[in-house]
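Chain X:
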Amino acid sequence: MRSRVGRATTAAVLGGLLAAGCGSGSGSGTESSAADKGASTDGYPVTVTDCMGAETTFTSAPKNIVTSNASSLELLLRLGAGDQVIGTGFPPGKGTLPGRLDAQAQQVKVLGETVIPKERLLGSGADLYIDTFASMNMGGGMGDAPTEKEFEAAGIKHTFLKSTACAATSKSPVTDLSAVEDDITSLGAVTGTSAKAKALVDGMKSKVDAVREAVGGTPEGERPTYFFFDYDAGTKQPMAVCNRQIAHAVITLAGARNVFADCDGDYRQVGWEDVVAKDPDWIQLGVRDRGSEAANDKAFDEARKWLETNSATKGLKAVEEGHFLRIGSERTTIAGVTNADTVEEIAKTLYPGKAGRP
């Protein structure tokens, strides 16, 4: 589990996926070798950019990919590029991914239960490292990130889940999933799975368009207010999801009003007095995946009980009315296909007569 500081500097969080990292220099690494077994080089070279516009070019698909965490690993599995992955950090717990994806994920070598140690990453044999985290020392005092020169020396191209990792640098509020869709499209181009990427993006657009048609016409003043309670970031001082974070787009697309929409950036620590002043209509119990349904349910119960028994929050409208949503943090704050599923789930809960039953 990442610390509060790590959480704040993860700009997850979420977010174009294959752009080389936020605030990093020019694209690093040597040219990737031939694509995995029998793959064509059609569609190459592929060039992607980082947050500052620096370019990284791929002349063929990488075949030894390391992912920083479960979110980027899941995207590769969904794209059908799982056999190109040789390791990951922050691995998904057994049973946390659906069916076939879970079985594949459990076969991936775990290079770090949290952040992959620097030397282990550089010595992994990877030709591509996909990083979901912001390039700010990987946050939380959990180990130094390699420099771009060190990545280059090791022959590793370093790219980021841009819509997550670079959220803090966005110049305007994020109100749709286009950056996430661009991530998936870019990752598909780099790994030679563009057709699958298009299918995933089309599926996301279909779900979001259906929600927009159902609730998009609701006047701003009639939309319910919504607070994402990041339980794992700590309860002493809540962590607000601000308007550059992908969760803000998810909440907005679902027809709700993020109570901290006026906060520029990705995350910000606020006080409980600020939450009380907002008095949200709905609260999402955002807990991180514990590795099993039973463990997740327990964490959701704990988050709800805390709100119901804490003197500062038990009088909130949402708490008194039991207006809670039990939706995990990752699928809300980190870029992925399930962002669209979360839009749909929130809308069905808040607008049961329009968007269908939850």
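Chain Y:
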Amino acid sequence: MAEDLDRVSLTLPPDMTDQLDGIVEDWDYASRSEAARDALRDFFTTYEWERGDETRHYGTIVIAHEHDHDSDVAGRLQTIQHEYADVVTSVQHIHLSEDRCMETLVVDGTAGEIDELANRLRAIGGVKQVKVVVVGGDSGADGRAQTDHGHDHGHDGHGQPGHEH
């Protein structure tokens, strides 16, 4: 391996070792260590998220809602998405049935920003379910996202995500 690694010993009960070995095999991990590193990355992200620090996170917010023109759920969702244009980087709207829709928001923000957005969306009448999935992000010395990483995010020149109505 090219990277410098520290050796850590881990003691597990046999049933956990058996389960870990099964996952290593099923998911084609190269080793127990690689699986443990993967699990620890998720553990660290969860810890940072729950601390609510200024670490930048990337992820999705999935919203299931009624498709009811009378209540204007879609319009209220869109208004909030515009209020959080610095956090919401893209939106996908899917018609699940004649009366039910799903939106997937790709987000980039601190735990507090993403959590606040999710709670605002949950509070809208007609919203049936909101799920947040986040992954850790790179952060600079100030905890903010590293934005100069070699590709365009489709912003409209005013810091807003590029999109059509």
